[in-house]
Amino acid sequence: MARLLTRLLAAIVLVQSSLLGAAETSKPNFIYILADDLGYTDVGWHGDEIKTPHLDRLANNGAKLEAFYVQPVCSPTRAALMTGRYPMRHGLQVGVVRPWAAHGLPLDERTLPAALAEAGYETAISGKWHLGHFKPEYQPTKRGFQHQYGHYNGALDYFTHDRDGGHDWHKDDKVNRDEGYSTVLIGDEAVRRIKEREKSKPLFLYVPFNAVHSPLQALEKDLEKYAHIQDKKRRAYCAMMSCLDDQVGRIVKALDDEQIRDKTLIVFSSDNGGPLGLGATNGTLRAGKGSLYEGGVRVCALAHWPGKIKAGTVVNEPLHIVDIYPTLLTLAGASLEQKTPLDGRDAWAAITQGAKSTRTEILHNTTPTTGAIRIGDWKLILNGNAPVDNVETSGAPIRRRQRMGERMELFNIAEDRSEKNNLAESHPDKVKELKARYDVLAAEAVPPKNEPKPAGFQVPKVWGEAGQ
């Protein structure tokens, strides 16, 4: 009798575990693929010089997000994605987290992977972090990722995996010596994580490639595809993007092999506009990386989920990368309750149903010297030509943005996305309206944390190692 009771209890536990596993795996998987410094017209569906068949297939069979906005440079965009909050709330609105920086994404911020882990997700990052590494608590495995692979800094050497002579390749936040081209290694790990995932849990996989950021280093086999391009920078850039697209194809194939593609939402974007002069193109968009004009903040993006997003969808509603946070959490059934208010809005209806976006404005940025806001079709830019990295290298405090003598530019983006016609003088009431709202948001910003390199700073042998 006792033996029979024991078997019965064991069977009940097995059934309960099975039901729990089924409930968890009914949640969608999420893969966010982030390109670094990709130009607006440097994907197949926006241009014809670089061949990106795998990305094109995802875009054509999903939704092209044609008014998708990010921040002007790397770290701020990543902070916005990880928190659903504008980087001016983190002090990360100016420049990027430099290798020597004694700061990162504030530790009191709830992150996207941490929130998804609370909802039962397995979480992994394969690629570039760029949100702080000077102490272990700022590194990915302490910020919600259960698995980490890749590098902490920007501008990584693609072959040696060094930055300024210090090694910057890690697995689970410990030094890693894998050899190979970084774009391929990141793809290898993404595929491995899909195939070796814990199958009783849904997966959140964040794949922030360092391609196509400088240094412009490409594999010879990819350079051969663009031998007809005479400009060496452009040729290398095109080859690097081709390699990234190949890795996207491998990721999709892994989903197909595991028969989970129809259970997976894939989102792709760049982290900022393409840097002109370093091989990138932004088409008719004005300016590029580091700018608050459209060429700096409007990027190519897509969302793909078979059976959930209709093929051929085109979304012209303005969306911002902060919207990804609440969108994914809502799809995952995760809680949006937290101590810090969100700037992001759930964009799922806009992506899948053609609905109007619930957001009424986009704060492109606010810094002590420059800023921009979009409300509806109208965009106001303050001191648009001021440098984004305007920080005193002497260590003196950053000067407050001057209230007098600001240069105002007003554009109707729906009619003039190239930002050729400054309408500030002919629409003073609209300038006043946008400026009033901008000032409210600017007053909420915390001081930027972009500090100069300390005198006598020594590059460590391994970036991020304890005691370095």
UniProtKB/TrEMBL annotation:
The keyword Glycoprotein applies. It comes from the Bacteria. Residues 1-22 form the signal peptide. GO terms for molecular function: arylsulfatase activity; metal ion binding. Residues 445-468 are annotated as: Disordered. Its EC number is 3.1.6.1. Keywords: Calcium, Glycoprotein, Hydrolase, Metal-binding, Signal. InterPro entries: Alkaline_phosphatase_core_sf, ARSB, Sulfatase_CS, Sulfatase_N. Residues 28-334 form the Sulfatase N-terminal domain. Pfam families: Sulfatase. Belongs to the sulfatase family. This is Arylsulfatase. The lineage of its organism: Bacteria, Pseudomonadati, Planctomycetota, Planctomycetia, Planctomycetales. The gene is atsA_31.
